[in-house]
Specification:
Blueprint lengths: L1 E5 L13 H11 L3 E5 L2 E3 L18 E4 L2 E4 L2 E3 L9 H20 L3 E5 L4 H11 L4 E5 L2 H4 L5 H12 L3 E4 L2 H11 L6 E3 L14 H8 L6 E6 L8 H11 L4 E6 L5 H10 L6 E5 L6 H7 L2 E4 L8 H8 L4 E4 L4 H4 L6 E4 L4 H13 L4 H6 L6 H21 L1
Parallel strand pairs: 1-2, 1-7, 2-5, 3-6, 7-8, 8-9, 9-10, 11-12, 11-14, 12-13, 14-15, 15-16
Antiparallel strand pairs: 4-5
């Protein structure tokens, strides 16, 4: 089976952590099937000042990313305005490049991740070349991008006109059916996996010594993009209620909320209790997880947050908001505690409870054993094979 993968949510040499979970299953899928990987990146006309994303111009048209050959075609975009036009802009911008690739490689099926704008463009391209197309939804593309009315209608049309929709959780599947009218029978749930060779229990004292952390502290770790929907400001306010000598909160990540979080930490007098080291390479995350006594995720919305599974794989309990696929991951009280999203008081209370409680690392780790990215890729491959067989018989 020859697969054309098309998604803008994928790592590049300037954003190694972008779409890293998509890359993991794609790498495993590439061991089994022939893949052509296309990752459209924005092109900004010279008169548009957009310093925060100027690095896109320096991404090579072709690159080798951890053994994967990746093409980075450009698509025109006007940042921050007329977002509902990003899908048509992408289609018109990349059509010629995609036509050349499709004529050359003759793929059997188009696999796309993210429903908008690339989902819309992928469906149009698939229709032009009579290819079956599968759209994988991750979470925020449904939870956030569907809020504007026009975008919601475009995403609804996209998911209604593809061959199959993939979801990372039952909760997201229900949301697509309820909000967008996608029939439940056209949605397949394939949860994410973990890297068992990277996320495994390590001796906490040695890991803390490596990271320069106090071996005696009770450490809470949060790994998240610093955006409003991740609720990290709520976590900081909650930690102000449970701080005491020997307790430390480490928030790993970067984003638009960083300046506000730094100010909030100072205002609440938490400079000695909260550490903001910024984003870290994904390969370093297992060290921070193993250094922790507790993993916290205070998100306001979620799809299938892999950081929780990675915490389990290291034998660490979690405290997380009861949103999205979280109840499907934290499906037993022996694994962690769920809290009301956006409620700092509830979050503080449960962080305190979790830090005082004794947890069984073996029970926690058993929750995710066997859910590797190879397993995820095989489930995806079987789904694509079934879709392709149905397409050929029609």
């Amino acid at each position: 089976m020859k697969i054309l993968l098309s998604t803008s949510i994928f790592p590049n040499r300037f954003e190694p952590n972008r779409g890293v979970y998509i890359k993991k299953q794609v790498k495993e899928l590439a061991r089994r099937e022939k893949l052509t990987i296309l990752v459209p990146v924005p092109y900004f006309p010279s008169f548009i000042k957009n310093r925060g994303q100027s690095f896109y111009a320096n991404i090579p048209v072709e690159d080798n990313l951890d053994g994967l050959h990746v093409h980075y075609p450009r698509f025109f975009i006007i940042p921050k305005i007329f977002r509902f036009l990003h899908g048509p802009f992408m289609f018109l911008s990349v059509y010629r490049f995609y036509r050349q690739v499709i004529n050359r490689d003759k793929p059997d099926i188009l696999l796309g991740f993210w429903s908008f704008p690339e989902g819309f463009a992928n469906v149009l391209i698939a229709k032009c070349f009579k290819l079956p197309v599968v759209i994988g939804c991750r979470g925020s593309d449904i939870n956030q991008l569907t809020k504007p009315c026009i975008q919601r209608k475009i995403i609804s049309w996209t998911l209604g006109n593809c061959s199959r929709v993939l979801s990372v959780s039952e909760a997201l599947k229900t949301e697509m059916t309820r909000k967008l009218g996608v029939p439940a029978e056209r949605i397949t749930v394939i949860p994410n996996g973990i890297e068992e060779d990277k996320f495994y229990p390590q001796e906490q004292g040695k890991v803390r010594e490596t990271l320069g952390l106090n071996k005696r502290d009770r450490i809470t770790v949060c790994v998240a993009r610093l955006e409003t929907v991740k609720g990290v400001d709520i976590l900081v306010r909650a930690f102000a209620q449970v701080r005491c000598e020997g307790r430390l909160l480490v928030i790993i990540g970067d984003g638009e909320e960083m300046p506000r979080l730094k100010t909030l930490v100072e205002e609440l007098g938490l400079s000695n209790h909260v550490l903001l080291p910024g984003s870290k390479p994904h390969d370093e995350i297992p060290l921070w997880v193993n250094a922790a006594d507790l993993m916290v995720l205070p998100s306001l919305t979620e799809g299938w947050p892999n950081v929780l599974m990675e915490a389990f794989s290291c034998g660490k309990p979690v405290v997380a908001s009861r949103v999205g696929g979280v109840p499907e991951i934290v499906n037993n009280p022996s694994l962690g505690i769920m809290t009301r999203p956006g409620d700092a008081d509830d979050l503080a209370r449960e962080i305190n409870n979790a830090l005082e409680r004794q947890w069984d690392a073996d029970i926690i780790r058993a929750r995710v054993l066997g859910r590797s990215w190879a397993t995820v890729a095989e489930e995806l491959r079987c789904e694509l094979t079934q879709i392709l067989e149905g397409h050929k018989s029609n």
